[in-house]
Amino acid sequence: MKKTGKLISIVTAAIFAAMLLISCGALEAKPPQADGERTTAPDAAEASAPDGPMETVPVETSAPSGILTVYFSCTGNTETIAGWIQEALGGDLFQIRTADAYPEDYDELLETARQEQEAGARPALSGRVEHMEAYDTVFIGYPIWWADMPMAVYTFLEEYDLSGKTVIPFCTHGSSGFSGTQEAIAALQPGAELREGIAVRGGQAADSREEVIGWLAGLGLEGAAAGTAAASGGEIRVRFSFDGGEAAAVLNDTPTVQSLLAQLPATVTMSDYAGAEKIAYFAEALTDEGAPEGYDPQIGDVACYGPWGNMAVFYNDQPYAEGLCPMGKIESGMDLLAALPEDASVTVERIG
């Protein structure tokens, strides 16, 4: 009995340790409870003192409407998304950094993050955004740690009043998506206009550029169209015409989109799938050449499901799916598309 009890204790401890690593979302890992950053141990520089002098940002901004991209990142995935946002829209970057360094050891970092969350801690930050009033739009990015934002992001949100500004979240995660963090931001910044964010799987972050650019194009920010068009290789617009109205979409310049354009104009039948998307098949299957392994679609996304070669327009949330590749975003008429009857006849044509 003593040996059995000891064996059970060892097994139990091992299982607990494994569960801790899996649920740690703290580094944007692949497991369900993880956030979006790799499961490898974070580099010490990324954990507490990321590359470059980013403690403050200037008053003047190169952004079309005063855009600031704020992010917290330990292993680089969230930082990658932040960089693409700035590349497409211009503006300034501000990295949230804690005054005290996080542990370099992976397990210790996870434990620190857990303890901070349980205590409702507000870690002190090193550096401030100078002249926050200069910005009209603030993107806020973070990994999902233990099904929540890192406590340092709470510190940031409680130090600034973003009333009157447009706030747009983005996160990297394991499989949980935003995990209620958009609602938390809305509660902390009730005077801000919260816009639709994007949640990117940490394991897919490096391959999610097209998805991010398509999301940005669909936000309709003033002055953003040229930037997202340049970032994606050119702006492409298509129109969906049907009985009762029309819708328009901005598409990315990708091999998948080019395989669609080669068949336009075309009249197709759009049917409902899973109560979340409208799908259509063209004369030839759309290619998924060069596409990521999959992604987490957002409402309004236009995508291709590679194994079937069809086009899908999402009108409800759907989880991450392998084989799904982003094509662009509906910019008008989404409500009309969502309300289409089964097997509706739709004409798709390029308009720009």
Automatic annotation (TrEMBL):
Report the residue ranges that make up the Flavodoxin-like domain in this protein. 67-220
Which key words are in the record?
A: Signal
* Stretch forming the signal peptide: 1-29
Kindly list the GO molecular function terms attached to this UniProt entry.
Answer: FMN binding; oxidoreductase activity, acting on NAD(P)H
State the residue spans of region: Disordered: 31-58
Task: Please give the Pfam families that the UniProt record associates with this protein.
Answer: Cyclophil_like2, Flavodoxin_4
What name goes with this protein?
Flavodoxin-like domain-containing protein
| Organism field | Christensenella minuta
